[in-house]
Amino acid sequence: MTLIIGALLFAMYRELILEQQHQVEIHLESERIQYQQLALTSGRQAFAAQVRTADPKTMLVVWQHDNQLEGALSFMPTDMPYLPETKEFPILTGGPEKLHIFTGGLVHTRYGPVLLASRTDQLATLIDKFISAAATAMMVTILLTLAAGYLFSKALLGRMVRYSKLSRRIEQGHYDTRFPTSEHPDEFDMLATQFNRVLDTLQNNLDAVRGVTDNIAHDLRTPLSHIRIGIEELANKPAEEVPENCAVLIEELDMCLATFNAMLSLTRIEEGQQKLELQQVSLVDLCRDLEEMASAVAEMQDQQLSLTTGTDCQITGDKSLLFMALYNLIDNAIKYSGDGSVIRIEQEGAVIRISDNGPGIPELDKDRVFERLVRLDPSRHHAGTGLGLSMVKAILSRHQARIELSDNHPGLMVTVTFRT
């Protein structure tokens, strides 16, 4: 702001100087034409009378002829140029203002050279006053700018110090800390809001990790306890019963290992570490394979499994992973829809729907079921790792497919839409 104001004042100063010169030039040019016309139309005596009666306050006129001077001066200034060129010269007077500055030049007339000069010291005084006022304005502007800059930097530094303290608090583990925002948002508030969103995400992730840890502890506590008790009892069992008890313990250990292996596989798929064996996959053929594999399991549960196919769609993907993901959805429908339920597999183009008429999933839990190790309470009596739907979502995401859970009224409908 100081530089801008300084530039504006300098521009005004330049305009004032140029305007002063312009006005003096116009005035002198006007007087030059007047006296040249007067010399052409008047006699010498009339011309001399006109020169003598000229008012020095408006225009200083001096006529030099026959080594004599007519007008307001008793001598002709030296080295005066002819108009339009001009020259400044001082004149001493007897009044309170002893020195006057004039700007003028000579004019060719029929009766000889005539000096025309306009007083410019008053304009110079005006310029001096302008310079003084501009300097004062600049000093005031600099002082106000420094004061405003100090207050602004102090407020800015205060916010930075406060943010630094809050950052150290977050670094110490207080993840519920949030950066404050003002009623009138500025750039710092925008940054604080962004950091608060990051902290919210971090808090949610930490809560999710705690939830996963609790689920792991809950799901593995029982089989590990069984293994411990079984090992203690092996020492007291007859030799012929040891193989049977070992088989039970091995089954429990296999369940624990399956959980950890599923978690590792899920991580590799989510992080893109597992390479896909890409090939052209027909969704109609894939659904037929699924129906053939799952029909025997459904019959054991006295369930009806039907397949309806429409227009075929060819996609590029890993057939084994896609089969595993879709079979997991059908297996969940068989497990949780209950005996005697009806399960449908419907395919039309790039869309596959798997529906049942079982109890379904509550609306609030439809997003949670895709989280790791989340098993809804009604399903705790079924064996499982709680990673199935997480694996399904990870596989479909790698294939740029979308999965959506909705109510089937009654039951659950799972819609998988592939990108073509």
How many β strands by DSSP?
12
- Total domain count: 3
Query: Main sheet, how many strands, which sense, barrel?
Result: 5 strands, antiparallel
* Helix count, DSSP H or I runs of 4 or more residues: 8
Calculate the terminal CA-CA distance, rounded to whole Å.
59 Å
Q: What proportion of the residues is helical, as a percent range?
A: 40-55%
Taken from the alpha-carbon principal axes, the silhouette is rod-shaped
CATH homologous superfamily descriptor of the largest domain? Histidine kinase-like ATPase, C-terminal domain
User: Order of strands in the sheet with the most strands?
Assistant: 2-1-5-4-3
Going by helix content, strand content and strand pairing, the class is alpha+beta
Question: How much strand?
Answer: 15-25%
Shape-level CATH architecture of the largest domain: 2-Layer Sandwich
* CATH top level class name of the largest domain: Alpha Beta
Rg, Cα atoms, Å = 50 Å
Which topology of the largest domain does CATH recognise?
A: Heat Shock Protein 90
Q: Detail the poorly predicted runs.
A: 377-381
Average pLDDT, all residues = 80
What is the N-to-C succession of helices and strands? HHEEEEEHHHEHEEHEEHEE
Give a quick summary of the entry:
The chain is of the alpha+beta class.
